[in-house]
């Protein structure tokens, strides 16, 4: 079973940017679809093994998901951050009943 570790969260001003990383263990990571959720509840984005991506419609192009299979990593570039983007961000494989990382906190505050 893959293990996932998130990093890159922090405190940022409204309008700022952050890049979250999700690093996975094992040789099968490149074959996995990876999702990002906020608070283990709100879908943010997902990426398939070959890079096909989907996003929550509410994000309106502010976030970009990408992956580097050579580094067993998936990234979430977050731009034009808003107060309501605040929360714990988790990467996930397999949906709600699948594998979760420990999360990384994003706080948007002035």
Description of the molecule:
By secondary structure, the chain is mainly beta. It is 0% helix and 49% strand. It is built from no helices and eleven strands. The strands form two sheets. Strands 2, 4, 5, 6, 9, 10 and 11 form a seven-stranded mixed sheet that branches. It has a four-stranded antiparallel sheet with strand order 1-3-8-7, with no helix packed on it. Strand 4 and strand 5 form a beta hairpin. The chain is globular, with a radius of gyration of 13 Å.
Question: How would the blueprint of this fold be written?
Answer:
Layout: E1 4-7, E2 10-12, E3 18-24, E4 34-38, E5 42-47, E6 53-55, E7 63-68, E8 73-78, E9 87-93, E10 99-100, E11 104-108
Basic shape: globular
Radius of gyration: 13 Å
Beta-strand percent range: over 45%
Strand count: 11
- Distance from N terminus to C terminus (CA atoms, Å) equals 40 Å
Give the count of helical stretches: 0
Low-confidence stretches: none
Taking the sheet with the most strands, its summary is: 7 strands, mixed
Mean pLDDT: 96
Spell out the helices and strands N to C: EEEEEEEEEEE
Task: Briefly note the structural class of the backbone.
Answer: mainly beta
Helix content: under 10%
Keywords:
four-stranded antiparallel beta sheet, 11 strands, about 110 residues, single chain, seven-stranded mixed beta sheet, mainly beta
How would you briefly describe this protein structure?
With 110 residues, the chain is mostly beta strands. It has strands at 4-7, 10-12, 18-24, 34-38, 42-47, 53-55, 63-68, 73-78, 87-93, 99-100, 104-108.
């Amino acid at each position: 079973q893959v293990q996932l570790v998130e990093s890159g969260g922090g405190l940022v001003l409204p309008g700022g940017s952050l890049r979250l990383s999700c690093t996975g263990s094992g040789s099968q990571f490149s074959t996995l679809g990876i999702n990002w959720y906020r608070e283990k509840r709100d879908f943010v984005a997902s990426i398939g093994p070959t890079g096909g991506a989907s996003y929550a419609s509410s994000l309106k192009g502010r976030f970009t998901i990408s992956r580097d299979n050579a580094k067993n990593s998936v990234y979430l570039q977050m731009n034009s951050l808003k107060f309501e983007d605040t929360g714990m961000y988790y990467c996930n494989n397999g949906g709600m009943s699948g594998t979760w990382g420990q999360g990384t906190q994003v706080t948007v505050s002035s």
